[in-house]
Structure formats: C-alpha cells, structure tokens
Amino acid sequence: MDKDLKEIITVGEKGQIVIPKKMRDHYKIEKGTKLLVKEEGASLLISPIVLDDKHLFMLASEKSLQKIWDNHYDKRWDDVL
Predict the structure, then answer these.
(1) 4 by DSSP, 3-state: which?
(2) What whole-number distance in Å separates Cα of residue 24 and Cα of residue 35?
C-alpha cells in the first residue's frame, strides 16, 4: 500500500467512521476485527489487533468467566478496594 495514501472521511452522528475499502482489504479488516485506537502527539492512530493463540485463549476465558466475575455480589467490594 502506498504510504502516502490518504483519505478524508466523515464522522457520523454516533462517532462512527468508515475505513475505506482499499485499506480494509489491505489490512484484512472485516466485521468483528478489533482495532486499537491510540493518541500519538496530535494524531490518532488506528491499527488492527492481531491475537495469537495465547491471547485468544485469555480473551475466551475472560468472556466465559465474566458472568462469574461481574455480579452484584462483587459490587460490595467497590468501596473497600
């Protein structure tokens, strides 16, 4: 991909943007792809997150255990911790 390639896009009313198709294709960004948005100086950088097997396992474990971790009984600790 040409490093000088630039696109002007418009932010929608809900803060959403559309990544141009050429860039989505190049970076293999599709529905469900996780993106990292970070501030660098006066710029925002957006990059796809590529998860290896270890990180996929951790993500799956977190989602499956979230029902156990995130319950109203745990809220009582918020004032203590």
Answers:
(1) coil
(2) 12
Nearest to 11 by CA among 19, 3, 22: 19
3-state secondary structure 42-77: CEEEEEECCCCHHHHHHHHHHHHHHHHHCCCCHHHH
Tokens at 46, concatenated: 């957006």
pTM over 0.70? The answer is no
* Cβ–Cβ < 8 Å for 56, 49: no
Q: Cα dist. 23→16, 43, 63 in Å?
A: 16, 18, 30
- 32 or 71, which is more confident: 32
DSSP reduced 3-state for 23: helix
Whole-angstrom distance between the N-terminal and C-terminal Cα of the chain?
Answer: 48
Which residues in 1-81 belong to E strands, given as ranges?
35-40, 43-48
pLDDT in tens, 54-66: 666 666 666 666 6
